[in-house]
Amino acid sequence: MEIDPELLDPSTRYKLLIGSVVPRPIAFVSSLSPEGVANLAPFSYFNAAGHKPLALMFSISLKPDGSEKDTLRNVRPASEGGTGEYVINLAVESYAHQVAESSEPLPYGESEFDYVNLSPAPSRVIKPPRVAESPVAFECRTLQIVPVGEFHIVIGQVVHLFVRDDVLGENNRINVDKVGAIGRMAGYEYCRTGDRFEIPNGFPKQPSV
Ligand SMILES: Cc1cc2nc3c(=O)[nH]c(=O)nc-3n(C[C@H](O)[C@H](O)[C@H](O)COP(=O)(O)O)c2cc1C
């Protein structure tokens, strides 16, 4: 099958994308409105953006009515009506159901922290709280927001990192089994990160991308 994506309707494009780009890591993003209301939502169009400086990116669609999602409003710089700060918490198996539940659209000004019963913990450098239950949390400041059609790619610099003591091993290696990160497949399917294999000669001696 040879496919010109421009000839497809957006929902078919979406199906082909989410069934092919798998598994997708999930950014569990906590942000704060300028009025001080905490917001929490999952984003699986998410990945590392660099480590010089440490940077992450995720992509936010518009709502079906064309308005901006709460997270996008909040992560915009202060000059554009947001706060320009957010935390990327990990999506892990112990609260996987809450990750999915937090995608429920609540009215702007209502906090998903209360809705899904996860606890906010104070961040060290920025105002939005991290998720207390998350074993790793990246405190980020927005560097750039790149519009791509109806999506906005948010690129942020990590200004502080929380790593729970029990998941940090020797030589700053993260114990991925203790973290228990989950990934998103298509539809309602998720995956675990416990099924792995090694390619011994492929191990990078230097950080590689
Ligand atoms: C696992 C998962 C991954 C998601 N990934 C994205 C994504 O990458 N981009 C996006 O715009 N919405 C994504 N969503 C939907 C948002 O989480 C949802 O629209 C949410 O209500 C946005 O919240 P907000 O308005 O508080 O920002 C995802 C939902 C789930 C359950």
UniProtKB/TrEMBL annotation:
InterPro entries noted in UniProt: Flavin_Rdtase-like_dom, Split_barrel_FMN-bd
A Pfam family assignment: Flavin_Reduct
Coiled coil: none
Cofactor(s) listed: FMN
All copies of domain Flavin reductase like, residue ranges: 19-173
Gene3D superfamilies linked: Electron Transport, Fmn-binding Protein, Chain A
Domain of life: Bacteria
UniProt keyword terms in alphabetical order: Flavoprotein, FMN
Family stated for the protein in its record: Belongs to the flavoredoxin family.
Protein name as it appears in the record: Flavin reductase family protein
Species in which this protein is naturally found: Leptolyngbya subtilissima DQ-A4
